[in-house]
Amino acid sequence: MTGQLDLSPQLAQPPYWLVFGLPWPAGQEPAREAVAAIAPPLVTRDTSLPRDVGDVLAMADAYQRMSGGRVVFLSDLTKWLDQRGSSWAARGTGYEGALAFLLGRQSSTPLMYLTITQRAHVIICDASREGVTLHFTNGAPPERVSTQERQLVHQVLEQQLVADWPPYMRQLAAAGRLRAR
Predict the structure, then answer these.
(1) pLDDT band at 50 (very low <50, low <70, confident <90, very high)
(2) What is the band of 4 on the pLDDT scale with cuts at 50, 70, 90?
(3) 92: left (phi over 0), alpha (psi -120 to 50) or beta
(4) CA dist 9 to 5, 12, 82, 97, Å?
(5) Which of 75, 97, 109, 169 is the most exposed place for a label (fewest CB within 10 A)?
(6) Is residue 93 scored above 70 in pLDDT?
(7) Which residues in the chain belong to E strands, given as ranges?
């Protein structure tokens, strides 16, 4: 297409994204910008990368190879560790510091913020063994989120990223904030 930067296939459509929840913002809107997505395959893995970041990315790579999904939640990784009798702490990994690094200015990792509902936010952040139970203030009975609904959130985010990531990467490249390959 005329006028569009030519991005490498991996940059335009990375093999997968790591998605993690952010603090839920104040406001009345039913959907808010409350998750971030990065593409771990685009992160340069060298000695300048903090160990905690490298471990989170290595776990994401391993989980993605095992699951085959294009969207991996940080909570998927936490649950996976738990299923194996481990945890971030047992690995000596400060995942919160790793996320702070990826969100910070010191990271050159392309990062996209996504707008989601509060229900989807809860699902994305849930790393519990049995799945989250939602309790409502309007008197409705509690509701356990099903595995199928969690999978649906994965699918919807994948569709959103497949559609929105390439133009966002082109925008970053055009602004000189990303090197087009």
Answers:
(1) very high
(2) low
(3) left
(4) 12, 5, 34, 30
(5) 97
(6) yes
(7) 17-21, 31-38, 71-73, 111-117, 133-134, 143-144
Give the integer Cα–Cα distance in Å for 45 and 21. 23
Strand 17-21's sheet: what is its strand order? 71-73, 17-21, 31-38, 111-117
Inter-residue contact 162 to 13 (CB < 8 Å): yes
Tokens of 55: 């471990």
Q: Give the Cβ contact number of residue 87 at 10 Å.
A: 13
CA 15 to chain centre: 13
Q: Can you say whether the dihedral through the CA atoms of 67, 80, 147, 166 is positive or negative?
A: negative
* Per-residue H/E/C for 79-125: HHHHHCCCCHHHHCCCHHHHHHHHHCCCCCCCEEEEEEEHHHHHHHH
For residue 64, give the H/E element and its range: helix 51-67
* pLDDT of res. 180: 43
Amino acid making up residue 29:
E
Task: Name the nearest CA neighbour of 11 among 174, 131, 173, 130.
Answer: 173
Unique residue bearing structure tokens 């690094």: 101
